[in-house]
Amino acid sequence: MAEPPLDPQHTALLFFDTLKGGNYDRETRKLRAENQAFMASCVRIMEAARRLVLPVFYAQANHREDGADWASAMTDRIGRPRADRFGRSRIHPGSHAGSWEAEIVDELTPRPDDYRVYKHRYSAFHGTHLELSLRTAGASNVLLAGGATQSGIASTAYSGRDRDFNMVLLRDAIRTGDDEIQDYFMTHVFPRLGRVRTVDETVGLLEAGR
Q1: What Rg value do the Cα atoms of the chain yield, rounded?
Q2: Residue 147, SS3?
Q3: Does the residue 3 lie in any domain?
Q4: CB 202 within 8 A of CB 143
Q5: 23 FRET partner, CA 20 to 30 A, in 36, 51, 100, 152?
Q6: pTM over 0.85, yes/no
Q7: CA distance 127 to 44
Q8: Can the peptide bond before residue 148 be classed as cis, meaning omega within 30 degrees of 0?
Q9: Is 171 in a helix, a strand, or coil?
Q10: 74 and 116 share a domain?
Q11: Sign, CA torsion 94/97/99/102
Q12: 181 and 154 in one domain?
């Protein structure tokens, strides 16, 4: 049975936290060597989205510098140190709104007509206008790229699936620093939430759906 194509008129591209702080070296302010293949894939899907006139969304961390909106949930494992703010222990996000670290990477510079979704938690849907804007744009399919695999990407994929969006996880345009985690999510988790495809496979499905 042939795989259903992707209609570009009903498909959106969502970049999750493709930020300088997570992808660039802080000293040279250039793309880290280990992120070059990942970023090249992101650029390829962005170029295809521009050519096929897909709406492009950027989910971008937008934390307050003073910590008033940092997450305070207690977890066994965190990637950031905790700090006391406003009488509670909170997770330092590593960047704040307006900082260099929170900027979108130069390789994926947004256009004025793109959508910026400023978020404060892992899921790009939580407390944002993402769902409303996707539906207003007529998108029922969401191509998901960015990082990190096991946190923001996974949370957004779960949230999108539960809102009845057809999620397409772009295998080579999603990153984490751990190959074992990457393989596990791509093999065992994401296939339950949507389709796992490479950028080239996804572009083929978009071309077939024109």
Answers
A1: 17
A2: strand
A3: no
A4: yes
A5: 51
A6: yes
A7: 30
A8: yes
A9: strand
A10: no
A11: positive
A12: yes
